[in-house]
Design a protein that fits this description.
There is one protein chain. This protein has helices at residues 17-25, 47-54, 67-76, 96-106, 176-182, 194-204, 223-228, 232-251, 257-273, 277-289, 291-304, 308-311; strands spanning 7-13, 34-40, 58-60, 82-86, 90-92, 110-119, 132-134, 137-139, 145-147, 162-164, 171-175, 208-219. The chain is of the alpha/beta class. It has two domains: 7-225, Spore Coat Polysaccharide Biosynthesis Protein SpsA, Chain A (Alpha-Beta Complex), CATH 3.90.550.10; 229-308. The strands form two sheets. Strands 1, 2, 3, 4, 5, 6, 7, 10, 11 and 12 form a ten-stranded mixed β-sheet that branches. The chain has a two-stranded antiparallel sheet with strand order 8-9. Helix 8 runs parallel beside helix 10 (277-289). It is globular, with a radius of gyration of 19 Å. The protein starts with 6 loop residues before the first strand and ends in a 15-residue tail after the last helix.
């Protein structure tokens, strides 16, 4: 008896039609029955007309509501055992979803798994020669996040399955139970660090994450932002600065406060050198404005789990490249 799809692929999209087309095409050889749903964030590039013409299930929104809310909206419309969060500027290699689903099913303590994400550059097609985009998320001792392996040439160590602090929101398979229990992504984040925050809350609640290297996804990265956002670098800097502070308040130990203050001061100096000081400062002030709500969240999260489960991963990654800045 056919019980229907086991995995729902939820793809937030914003003016990414040229990249969305190969993304959707790559989902046809996954050896798993999929339910695909595109959440269009008010695109003006013909995305909705294309989706209608091709018969792709979608939700058409009048404006951009952000990645976090769009993903939650999509997840609320499906009832599969797992949800594949997927950026529109990705290409999924054949069999990847099956490999991810098998890994998730083998260990009930896993809340999510992520593939080996490779950087999709112009002309890049050789899997072995491509540079890594992410093999999982890690945290510095001051609570900043970075993608493990980002920018590195692949080697044997990158092909070993392992437990990781968290999974990258560009492409990750999340257990439905985790998503329902945690309430999905925090929609106050809009975009950037929403995956870090979900990883933190999941760890505190007792979930684990794993890296599945035989599953491969190619990813361009930030295409919609660079093409469509007003002053994209400034918008990026503001959101990262705001959302990083929010996440740090939720789980970082008070003894880390001097380190955090020093790092954030350094971030402002770097922002000034790169012409994004006002945006970064605005983001940090917005983060401080969120303090009461985030302190409330911290108390609630602590009552529901153990902050130590997330904190024990601080500094546990390999040598960090430049973390997500802001």
């Amino acid at each position: 008896m056919n019980l229907g799809p086991t995995v729902a692929v939820v793809i937030p999209s914003w003016n990414s039609l040229e990249l969305l087309q190969p993304c959707l095409a790559s989902l046809t050889e996954q050896e798993v029955e999929l339910e695909t749903l595109v959440i269009d964030n008010g695109s003006s590039d013909g995305t909705v007309s294309y989706l209608k013409r091709e018969g792709v299930s979608h939700v058409s929104l009048p404006t951009n509501i952000g990645f976090a809310r769009a993903l939650n909206l999509g997840a609320a419309r499906v009832r599969t055992e797992a949800i594949l969060a997927l950026n529109a500027d990705t290409v999924v290699e054949p069999g990847t979803v099956r490999a991810l689903l098998e890994a998730l099913r083998m260990d009930t303590s896993l809340g999510g798994v992520q593939p080996r994400i490779l950087q999709l550059d112009e002309g890049a097609s050789d899997r072995d020669q491509a540079r890594l985009y992410s093999m999982g998320q890690a945290l510095t001792r001051d609570g900043r996040a970075f993608e493990l392996g980002a920018g590195e040439t692949q080697s044997a160590e990158h092909l070993v399955p392992r437990q990781v602090f968290g999974v990258c929101g560009a492409s990750c398979l999340l257990r439905r139970e985790l998503f329902d229990r945690l309430g999905g992504y925090d929609e106050r984040y809009f975009s950037f660090y929403e995956d870090v925050d979900l990883n933190v809350r999941a760890r505190i609640a007792g979930w684990r994450f794993a890296y599945v290297p035989e599953a491969v996804v190619w990813h361009v990265g930030n295409v919609s932002w660079l093409a469509e956002a007003p002053r994209p670098n400034a918008w990026n800097a503001r959101l990262v600065a705001r959302n990083r502070i929010a996440t740090q308040v939720k789980f970082m130990p008070l003894r880390s406060l001097p380190r955090i203050l020093a790092v954030e001061a350094g971030a402002l100096l770097r922002a000034a050198r790169h012409g994004r000081f006002r945006a970064t400062l605005r983001g940090k002030l917005e983060g401080l404005h969120l303090l009461p709500a985030m302190i409330h969240d911290r108390r609630r999260i602590r009552a529901e789990g153990s902050l130590i489960r997330a904190r024990e991963w601080l500094g546990a990654g390999a040598a960090a490249p430049t973390p997500h800045e802001g």
